[in-house]
Amino acid sequence: MALILYELGGLNGRRYSQFSWRTHMAMAHKGLSAESRAVPVSDKQAIAFSGQDKVPILVDGDQVIADSWAIAEHLERRYADRPSLFGGAIGQALCRFVNAYVDRTLIPKLVPLLMIDVVACVGDEDAHHLRQQMEQVFRRPLEQLAAERDKDILAFRKLLDPARATLRSQPFLCGEQPAYADHILFSLFQWARIVSRFEVLEPSDRLAAWREAMLDRHDGLARKEPARSDATPGHRGG
Length: 238
Hints:
Elements: E1 3-8, H1 18-29, E2 34-39, E3 57-60, E4 63-66, H2 68-78, H3 89-118, H4 124-138, H5 142-146, H6 149-159, H7 161-167, H8 180-195, H9 206-220
Parallel strand pairs: 1-2
Antiparallel strand pairs: 1-3, 3-4
Helix pairs in contact: 1-2, 1-8, 3-4, 3-6, 3-8
């Protein structure tokens, strides 16, 4: 039975959720693919069947799995005969730390800087919903959050030093080949690439080369998703 992935969708059908990109990369790693079903952030009726209101949601036969980390664990268990996402129990436990680090340290630093661009690449209802939600969380207008991002991005880049240090000794975070820890960190850069023209990395950054390598994985799966810098008819805003 075909896999179905419910995920956020923006203008022109762009799949912009960083969490769903963790799942797309994980499935590709396993040699799997799923039918994508776009869900507006402002209307979650389409996923009411799951008993909660967050995406991504993977439907795999009679199983419904919500949350990108839970999906990765499911894929590892159910498709154990395919390439491993974690490389064993120790790798899975360490990867949980990477997941928490990206979610709790990196995302809060980068998301406020780019939210002004996110609301320009989704439909009007989603834009209103996201603006209201984010301005309530950060207690400032999105324009104000982005006003000094040329300076504020430096603090985000500094937080990436452990990844840079790792990549001095090996091509990917997980060694000679990427695995789920790479997918987790890459999802943040893929999100930024899709929603914003603002460059979050310096061209000379070791991580920029790693990002390019990740974009090329799986026959360019992630690269095929248009970047915000691409000229696309109907694309709104800055």
